[in-house]
């Protein structure tokens, strides 16, 4: 394959998979994203990297659109999808393919199946080699494990070997405690691999950690200070935007009150405070724009900053997910949309490591 491969980017968000695949020699031939603000960010950042998908109508808005013929999607080697987790019926294990109908996984399976069926009539049509899917950590246990089993069985039936692993961003060089499940599937007839060794982290020299038990000892050292703007940089950005990222007295009082109430009830919910020396933050989520409670930056003892914490700046949220915001990546949307987008995204260093290993382990002889 000369280290080159093609991929499609489903439920593409703002392009986390796209960046990782592109950096590993991949060419995007089709992308799909339904959210209009995410589409805006995606196009702003990839119109020069992958101009063809925008020029030839392969930047799709709705993967469930009945007017989209899956046979018309260009041939691809890898399918990437951070697909939404929707309920599957309890009869799933008996109903097989049909049980995915009404879920967005159904569309993933139908796209792959369309290429397999086309190949039967025309051997020049490429069968997808690898699928890389991402979801929340609890996905494997969703509906007592039935949801994952349906997906596994469905992919097995159309010729794919399936494996999965929960990976944590904090072991890949970004200071965020973010656990996500990644599912890797490869076509059994086209790729003769007995297993896929997941990368569980990266060392200081970016060497891969394959043993989960070695992560804590060998992973590169990081802290929250690595992603924070300097006080001066933040002040300039605040002045330019005519707003402050320090939360209001009222919101701060509400956060403290709610935390006390949760503590009285014996649970750990409430705001989370971090500083530059913290090893990592908690997981940034799509709701971060609401009150910032999961990641607040402590400003005590900071010169010319109020004695209240602040939210992350969108630039810091981008860095927290490993986006190349300091070199070429742009944020063309409001802060509210940016927080949603980065909260919904994959962490790029994790997907980058996966893309590299997929290429090395599964596409090596293709």
Please describe the structure with a list of short key phrases separated by commas or semicolons.
single chain; 366 residues; alpha/beta; Rossmann fold; DNA Methylase, Chain A, domain 2; 2 domains; 7-stranded mixed sheet; two-stranded antiparallel ribbon; 13 helices; 34% helix; globular
Quickly count the helices: 13
Low-confidence stretches: 90-94
Write down the Rg: 22 Å
Mean of pLDDT = 93
- Total individual domains: 2
- The CATH architecture of the largest domain comes to 3-Layer(aba) Sandwich
Given this structure, which CATH class of the largest domain is correct? Alpha Beta
Describe this protein's structure:
- By secondary structure, the chain is α/β, with parallel strands linked by helices.
- It has two domains: 233 residues, 3-Layer(aba) Sandwich (Rossmann fold); 121 residues, Alpha-Beta Complex (DNA Methylase, Chain A, domain 2), CATH 3.90.120.
- Helices cover 34% and strands 14% of the residues.
- It contains 13 helices and eleven strands.
- The strands form three sheets. Strands 3-2-1-4-5-7-6 form a seven-stranded mixed β-sheet, with helices on both faces.
- A hairpin with a 5-residue loop joins strand 8 and strand 9.
- Helix 1 packs across helix 13.
- It is globular, with a radius of gyration of 22 Å.
- About 1% of the residues have low confidence.
């Amino acid at each position: 394959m000369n280290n080159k491969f093609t991929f499609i980017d489903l439920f593409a968000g703002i392009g986390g998979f796209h960046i990782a695949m592109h950096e590993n020699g991949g060419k995007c031939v089709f992308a799909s994203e339904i959210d209009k603000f995410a589409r805006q960010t995606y196009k702003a950042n990839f119109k020069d990297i992958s101009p063809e998908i925008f020029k030839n109508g392969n930047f799709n808005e709705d993967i469930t659109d009945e007017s989209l013929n899956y046979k018309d999607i260009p041939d691809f080697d890898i399918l990437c999808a951070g697909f939404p987790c929707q309920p599957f019926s309890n009869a799933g294990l008996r109903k097989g393919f049909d049980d995915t109908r009404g879920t967005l996984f159904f569309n993933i399976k139908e796209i792959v199946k369309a290429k397999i069926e086309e190949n039967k009539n025309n051997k020049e049509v490429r069968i997808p080699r690898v699928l890389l899917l991402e979801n929340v950590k609890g996905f494997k246990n969703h509906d007592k494990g039935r949801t994952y089993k349906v997906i596994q069985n469905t992919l097995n039936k159309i010729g794919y070997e399936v494996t999965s692993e929960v990976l944590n961003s904090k072991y890949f060089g970004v200071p965020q405690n973010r656990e996500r499940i990644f599912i890797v599937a490869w076509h059994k007839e086209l790729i003769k691999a007995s297993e896929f060794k997941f990368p569980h982290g990266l060392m200081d020299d970016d060497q891969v950690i394959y043993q989960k038990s070695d992560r804590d000892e060998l992973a590169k050292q990081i802290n929250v200070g690595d992603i924070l703007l300097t006080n001066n940089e933040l002040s300039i950005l605040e002045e330019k935007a005519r707003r402050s990222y320090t939360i209001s007295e009222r919101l701060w009082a509400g956060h403290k009150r709610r935390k006390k109430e949760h503590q009285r009830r014996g649970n750990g919910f409430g705001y989370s405070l971090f500083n530059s020396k913290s090893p990592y933050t908690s997981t940034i989520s799509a709701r971060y724009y609401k009150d910032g409670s999961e990641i607040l930056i402590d400003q005590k003892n900071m010169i010319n900053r109020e004695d209240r914490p602040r939210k992350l700046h969108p630039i810091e949220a981008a860095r927290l997910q490993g986006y190349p915001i300091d070199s070429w990546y742009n944020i063309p949307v409001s802060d509210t949309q940016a927080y949603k987008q980065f909260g919904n995204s994959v962490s790029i260093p994790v997907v980058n490591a996966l893309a590299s290993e997929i290429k090395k382990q599964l596409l090596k002889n293709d």
